[in-house]
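Reviewer 2 asked us to include a model.

Predict the structure of this chain.
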Amino acid sequence: MQIKKIFKFMLPYALGIFIGLLIALFSAYMFEQTSDEKFCGSCHTMTPMIKSYLQSTHGGKNKNGTKAKCTDCHLPHDGLIHYMYEKELILTEEIFMTETAIYLPKIWLFLIYMQFLNL
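Predicted model (structure tokens):
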């Protein structure tokens, strides 16, 4: 009888932890999948940059054959929150510029992004 009470009490916590772990694993997987030249080069405007990257030492044309990911140089590495924020801001900037052919300074993109999030 006591075991049933404990099980009923612990089940929601165990499910919460399990769901949290699944979300964390999926998030880590998506961050990894959106950090390389395949993802960054999927936009037609990035084709010349990707070609240049693949022919450079960053793209593996070096004695070791090692590659740098786009995010190694183009995103900050001083904390997860700052990394996620900049990644979303850059994605918003790229989509906006690609779809509208209008370049906006980052402060305007930040304001648009915050308005979109209703913050």
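The chain has three domains: 1-33, 41-69, 75-119. Residues 1-33 form one domain. We have added this to the supplementary material.
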